[in-house]
Specification:
The protein has 19 helices and five strands. The chain is mainly alpha-helical. The chain has a three-stranded antiparallel beta sheet, with no helix packed on it. Strands 1-2 form a two-stranded antiparallel sheet. α3 packs across α4.
């Protein structure tokens, strides 16, 4: 035991291992997430190397959306049945298989097929682990830490995808086939090494649950018995016996997995938050996808600099995501943060559109791109924390799994549309669609009446706590 966490008047133990479990998640993100961005970051060069159309390279990112759409629900069922550790280890193994297959993607003749096949296995891995951060927060961390943990977990994924931009563009930045082949060999070798490390760490350190529950919310989910614990009160030099009595409470573990899913589809607040969140996820994926092709059309030969722009944008998103998690932990002002996020996003999209069409300054375009991605990414910590609270007592893993699946559906539709519009029409229409979606989400956010007061009332209305001095 490392420290004591207080929630209301009850006391819970927090274990040092929780940080190792979180580290296992973050290292797996470091192994998987770069594979989603590193090849589209040099899309124009790989199109030349493999002699394929843009959609073939864009598919290296789209397979992640397809896989998440198809396999996140089965992954959530495995989580429900076998626990956190088994699910995370399956994700690590799947990514390792993908790394081995992708190792031969440097072959010019049929390497593109190995690239897409390897990415499909890594995408399967992402479908298994991406939604687990809320489950890690619920199983291992105190109530006061959940928003921050969500921010760290999602932020680690952001850093890893940012490294994908910088990694590939540093090694592959010249349209010369020998240079491209050597660069690809190094990229896929590095991915294989990190994949092996992630697998070892996951199997060594990750456990499903601590010995005791870390919070009142988690205790409610695993037990319907009254609990009795002793707490030392050093200032008064006495010991208090804390007895927590529960009135009637329908336990989540009494429900079947499919009943939980069915209930979420009838949960109005969940559906509103999910559709709002899907817009930010869609914007993030779309602008990552089109960055290389959009800017190389205006600034040919700047592949390496464009990769740096993508890296900086996502790193800024990592920090903004952490800040959002901390703000939400302290204020619970979900509606206010949501409205501000979408207002800023709309402003940055309009500015980006104007610069792309009329003012071809690499610095200005890059700066606004970074602001746009940073703002949209920052909302992830808010949405995952919000969804876990409004859907309680449904498992956080189940609710965020469904959130992630719906996000993938939105993102897949728009990324395919964006690839088509960018190739056959112009980037103006990609930006226009993104702006319209952002404005629609802004309206939905302003009409969402799920307030913090209502959440807290629902969360704590069935608990009565009595303190007895002994």
């Amino acid at each position: 035991m490392s420290q004591i966490s207080n929630l209301s008047t009850n006391t819970y133990k927090l274990y040092k291992r929780r940080w190792l479990v979180l580290a296992g998640y973050c290292i797996l993100s470091l192994a998987v997430a770069p594979t989603s961005t590193c090849f589209t970051a040099v899309s124009n060069i790989l199109q030349y190397y493999y002699d394929v159309p843009p959609i073939s390279i864009h598919m290296s990112l789209m397979v992640f959306l397809v896989s998440c759409l198809l396999f996140t629900l089965p992954a959530s069922f495995i989580l429900h049945k076998y626990g956190l550790a088994v699910t995370l280890r399956m994700a690590a193994i799947s990514n390792l298989i993908g790394c081995v297959i992708r190792y031969f993607a440097y072959l010019e003749s049929y390497g593109v097929y190995l690239l897409l096949t390897g990415n499909s296995f890594s995408a399967l891995s992402m479908a298994f682990y991406m939604f687990l951060i809320t489950k890690i927060a619920a199983n291992w961390f105190g109530e006061h830490e959940k928003g921050t943990v969500n921010g760290i977990g999602i932020g680690s994924h952001m850093i890893a995808s940012a490294l994908g931009f910088i990694h590939s563009t540093y090694l592959i930045n010249i349209k010369e086939k020998t240079h491209i082949e050597n660069g690809m060999k190094q990229v896929v070798l590095h991915q294989l090494i990190v994949g092996v490390i992630a697998t070892v760490v996951t199997f060594t350190f990750v456990r499903s649950r601590p010995k005791t529950v870390p919070s009142l919310a988690e205790e409610r989910l695993v037990s319907n018995n009254s609990s009795i614990s002793t707490v030392d009160n050093n200032s008064a030099n006495q010991t208090k016996l804390i007895v927590t009595k529960r009135r009637s409470w329908k336990q989540t573990n009494e429900k079947t997995f499919w009943e939980s899913i069915k209930g979420l589809f009838k949960h109005k607040a969940f559906l509103v938050i999910t559709h709002i969140t899907s817009v930010t996820a869609t914007l993030e994926i779309t602008y990552k996808l089109i960055l290389n092709d959009a800017l190389t059309n205006i600034f040919p030969g700047k592949e390496k600099q464009i990769g740096i722009v993508g890296f900086i944008a996502v790193i800024l998103g990592f920090f903004s995501n952490i800040v959002s998690g901390v703000v939400i932990d302290k204020t619970k002002a979900y509606k206010a943060v949501t409205c501000v996020t979408f207002l800023l996003t709309a402003i940055f999209i309009v500015t980006w559109m104007i610069l792309i069409e009329f003012y071809h300054s690499f610095f200005a375009i890059s700066a606004i791109y970074c602001c746009l991605l940073m703002t949209s990414i920052s909302y992830h910590a808010v949405s995952t924390t919000h969804v876990a609270i409004v859907t309680y007592p449904t498992s956080a893993g189940t609710s965020n799994m469904l959130l992630f699946t719906i996000e993938s559906f939105y993102s897949l539709l728009l990324s395919i549309s964006a690839s088509f519009l960018l190739t056959h029409v112009s980037i103006f229409y990609v930006n226009l669609v993104a702006l319209l979606l952002t404005l629609a989400a802004s309206v939905a956010a302003s009409l969402n009446n799920t307030t913090n007061e209502n959440i807290n009332k629902e969360l704590f209305q069935n608990v009565e706590t009595i303190e007895i001095d002994i």
